[in-house]
Amino acid sequence: MPTPVKVLVPTGALGAGCPEDAFQRGVSLGPDALAVDAGSTDSGPYYLGAAVSKMTDAATKADLRQLMLARDKLNVPLIVGSCGTSGTNAGVDWMARLCEEIAVEEGLTATVALVYSEQTAAGLAPYLARGAITPLPPMDDLTQGRLDECEHIVGLLGYEPLAAAIEAGADIVLAGRTTDTAVIAAVPLMRGLPAGASWHAAKTAECGGLCTVQTRRGGVMMTIDDEGFDVEPLAADNACTPFTISSHLLYENADPYRLTEPGVVLDAKGATYAALDDRSVRVTGSRAELKPYTMKLEGSGAAGFRTMVFTAVADPKIMDRIGDWLSRLEAFLREGIGKVLKVAPADYQLDLRPYGWNALDPRHAPTERPPLEVGLMVLVTAATQTRATEIAKYCNPYLLHFPLNLDDPLPSFAFPFSPAEVALGAQYEFKLNHVVHLDDPCELAVTRTFIAGRGEFHAAA
Fold it and tell me: Exposed, middle or buried: residue 411 (CB in 10 Å: 0-12, 13-18, 19+)?
């Protein structure tokens, strides 16, 4: 029977922090592995398209230092997934640079495996040609042209390339884009523990303390065994309950019982959740079904340049008929952009977002009670920054004075800053929501190693 495995998950995102007292309590419990996710698509396509991290060097380095010091003390594997937010090769190299700096500063040495998951349109072309790339709803079949539109493409790794790196001797694994759960499930699965318990535990802990009562008090310790798994908060004054644990299967998941991972589907219909005490929960009965191995692809490509103008409106007459005013303003602006600037409708996008009045869900009917004030964000997107800013500047005077009716006295609104136009730079959009079918879970991963603390790290070409 396999030996139980303890996995310490300090936080849901590297750089978000784990209180030191909670973290050190977790270290004192003797984990067999340290695992943390460092990326997401939650903040949109920019970070993948531009291949930059949404987290700062300082915040990421603070969390990584905490983990590296603990790893050195415990002599257990440390796995970081989706490095640099989007898991590009540049993101992995960025994390490796921080790892090298910490090793030098703390006098540490460790074997580091860099597991890259970035793909190229040319490299995926043979898979596309033989029908090995299929769409996920609501996307259409993929074309080579669509692949070519992507600035960066990443594949979401399963646990296998991570486990292979550890089995080859890595102390620290810094991986490209992975599923959120793969980093947590890797060590339990490679040590022979059941897939159902391992993947369910990983899903539960993917967001650190989000499965606890006090979600900002640090992460959790997962103990996976041959029958199930236990969940315990790292902070002594925090707690898990059967409700907080069972409900996490609904987080970013449409099915409350089933979760699809590369090569496997978690089935938690038969799972039971029982309180071990007033702060820990035991889960049993999770199962896993094998399926053909697929890797999800994420791609982001250029979508022009954007300039923003923001104005604040509190005129009672306009607030009483805000929908009419917005419609008239947009029509007026579009007519002027065409006649005065000679810009065709197909050559720009104009987006009016009235925060304070149905901006987040414009499908809703206008509220019966008019708002007291609205913050109107106007976004202009065009092929160049110059053109986007030119259109935004044309809009400027009408975002300061535009009446409800043409014969009304001019109202005055408020720009919160000057200049009113803010260039937002290059924009990106997601291009892919597809999976590629693989014969080998590791065939699209590339791994290289270096010894941190010896000056061996060099960014990939």
Answer: middle
